[in-house]
Design brief:
By secondary structure, the chain is an alpha+beta fold. It has 3 domains: 88 residues; 49 residues; 55 residues, Nucleotide Exchange Factor Grpe, Chain A, domain 2. It contains 3 helices and 6 strands. A 3-stranded antiparallel beta sheet has the order 1-4-5. A 3-stranded mixed beta sheet has the order 2-6-3, with no helix packed on it. A hairpin with a 2-residue loop joins strand 4 and strand 5. The protein is rod-shaped and about 165 Å long. This is Protein GrpE. Keywords: Chaperone, Cytoplasm, Stress response. InterPro entries: GrpE, GrpE_CC, GrpE_head. Its main location: cytoplasm. Belongs to the GrpE family.
Length: 195
């Protein structure tokens, strides 16, 4: 019996070792399965997230294309409106000038028949005032330069003259009238300036 005891202990020890190995293998196998399942779940989550982001990117792309198309349409419409506005911008002024043209035509037809020059001159003067009223309503104002200090923004000096009446650098004579449109110089006045 003594001999059998060490053998029995050894067998028991081997069985116990085998059981421990088997448990360890099962535990490792279970951990591996859990890890594989977790990785598979992560892959599914990542794949789902990628799909969601892809759909969002497509939606944003479609929005961008729509906004770009709207902007292009707006730009084309604005250019067309500007061209049309520029084309017909003077229509209001021309409408106001048509009665002046009518009066000039009347004056020209009566000028041949009329022997009274002063009446003709008075009629032309009235037409000139009517014309200047229309222009003034549009913001046109003539410059009064004589007696003013020479200013290269408003005056174009064509000559310098000796003058006892004016100091140096003063406009003594206006050769051609200058005009302002609101606050902008449309045409500078041609002037003679004192020396």
């Amino acid at each position: 019996m003594n001999k059998q005891q060490p053998i029995q202990d050894e067998v028991n020890s081997n069985v116990e070792e085998e059981n421990n190995l088997s448990d360890n293998l099962q535990q490792e196998h279970t951990e591996e399965e859990l890890q594989n399942e977790a990785e598979a779940a992560n892959v599914e989550d990542v794949t789902g997230e990628i799909e969601k982001l892809r759909l969002e990117a497509e939606e944003h792309q479609q929005r961008l294309l729509r906004v770009q198309a709207d902007y292009d349409n707006f730009r084309r419409r604005t250019v067309k409106e500007k061209e049309e506005l520029a084309k017909y911008a003077s229509s209001v002024l021309i409408t106001q000038l048509i009665p002046v043209i009518d009066n000039f035509e009347r004056a020209l037809t009566t000028g041949d028949e009329s022997t009274n020059g002063s009446a003709y001159a008075k009629g032309v003067e009235m037409i000139f005032r009517q014309f200047m009223d229309v222009m003034s309503a549009e913001g046109l104002t003539p410059m009064n330069s004589v007696g003013e200090a020479f200013n290269p923004e408003y005056h174009q000096a064509i000559m310098q003259v000796e003058s006892d009446e004016y100091e140096e650098g003063i406009v003594v004579e206006e050769i051609q009238k200058g005009y302002l449109l609101k606050d902008k110089v449309l045409r500078p006045a041609m002037v003679k300036v004192s020396q």
